[in-house]
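Section 5.1 Outputs to date
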Amino acid sequence: MEFIDYAKMYRKMLEGKIAQLEESIKGFPAGCLHIYKNGNRYKWYQDINGERQYITKKEEDKAIVLAKKSFYKRNLVELSAEYESLNQYIIKHDKNKKRSAELFMKEEYSRLLKKALLSEYEKSVTEWMEEDYIKNLSHPETLNIRAINGIMVRSKSEAFIAEVLTRAAIPFRYECLLELEGIELYPDFTIMNPVSKDIIIWEHFGLVDNEKYLSNMMSKIRLYINNGYLPFVNFIMTCETNEKPLDFMSVHNIVDNFIKTTV
């Protein structure tokens, strides 16, 4: 996992903390606490828009609550400054990253870079990547998202997967024909282990909150398992719903913690 991934995770955590603090501060009494020393004792005042009201010793609970409010507000300023600095770093990083990614959008650059990224592997792996294969020709109108390596895919989540695999120099084919029990299937990604030459398939199920889609998905999973494709042995599954889309970090974790460990 790259530092930028941790930075984005930490930014998300900061967003949650900032939102919690802002919500908590709304529940405190109006104004802020002022404390003055008088000899060996302290006097407390509640300042509301410049008007100060004395807080008696019997009202210590009010002083405690206002002191807590002051701490929360200062904490909010600190976290907000940290968030802003981190956000600026991420924006600049993503802008610079886009410049290198643009090279993959150019056909000849893409072809040469594929070879460069795979140069440490055996020649047969490169040949496997460049071999013609039977692709899924159904619904070409849904192939409307260009992934980093120039291929057209059907969803942003598939584009995430293609990008992470490409950057990790993991050879793959998109929607390559796989025939099982006389049934033609087109797994989203067919991945070759460049060392063992073992094949791993990766299916992304993007509509699992749809009952019909879910039923078809379970039938497909059963077919894969019955033919020796076992989850997280040689078969990767990712899922998403409208409320919980696939995130970039999940894809990174799968590639780092599963695929790379098998290479």
